[in-house]
Design goal:
It is a single chain. By secondary structure, this protein is an alpha+beta fold. The C terminus is likely disordered. The protein has one domain: 2-Layer Sandwich (Muramoyl-pentapeptide Carboxypeptidase, domain 2). It is built from 4 helices and 7 strands, in the order E-H-E-E-H-E-H-E-H-E-E. Helix content is 23%, strand content 16%. The chain has a 5-stranded mixed beta sheet, covered by helices on one side. The protein has a two-stranded antiparallel sheet with strand order 1-3. A hairpin with a 6-residue loop joins strand 6 and strand 7.
Length: 191
């Protein structure tokens, strides 16, 4: 079952980048900016929030569950398997068990410096990249430590991406299970 992730329920900021044109495609992908995770992933998110809070930190979520239509939009724009999963196989996002996020200083509301923006499809986004500043490296390790301690696995090419272990064991989830669709599919007009 998908759980609706809200600021009120989880104490996180939600900024679904694909609900805006400020994403790698330059186009709005999600017409409805609703954030969801599978129930077991939502429990791991709660644990991560509890681990971050004593450090004066919270999270900003860029993406979570992604309908296959959204996965296709990303793949059609950037068919690079180093950064976008082939939608024919599905992704941890289309299974509701992945989350893209960063750390935020609760006091200032500012994102911690991670060295690159979200969806920077370059080697500088890799977890172990040494070209980013030492501060960014520390912040990435802090994010990695909190998320790992909360039971999340990481993807080595994207500092922002975390998923449950054995994510491919979870079934693909169609957006038809949602109260309202996130991605609208345009139907061909009759001639």
């Amino acid at each position: 079952m998908l759980i609706h992730i809200t600021r009120q329920e989880f104490g996180v900021d939600i900024d679904l980048i694909y609900a805006t044109a400020k994403n790698v495609t330059g186009k709005v992908i999600y017409q409805n900016a609703d954030c969801y995770l599978l129930e077991c992933a939502a429990q791991h998110l709660r644990h991560a929030v509890d681990l971050a809070r004593p450090h004066g930190l919270t999270f900003k979520i860029f993406d979570a569950y992604r309908p296959s239509e959204g996965q296709w939009a990303l793949w059609n724009h950037s068919p690079d398997p180093n950064f976008v999963a082939d939608p024919r196989r599905g992704s941890p996002h289309t299974r509701g068990v992945a989350i893209d996020l960063t750390l935020v200083d609760e006091r200032t509301g500012q994102e911690l410096d991670m060295g690159t923006p979200f969806d920077d499809f370059t080697p500088r986004s890799f977890h172990g990249d040494k070209e980013v500043s030492l501060e960014a490296q520390r912040n990435r390790f802090l994010l990695l430590g909190i998320m790992s301690a909360a039971g999340w696995d990481f993807y080595k090419n994207e500092w922002w991406h975390y998923q449950l272990f054995q994510s491919r064991d979870y079934p693909l989830i169609e957006q038809s299970v949602l109260p309202r669709p996130m991605v609208f599919i345009s139907k061909p007009q009759p001639a």
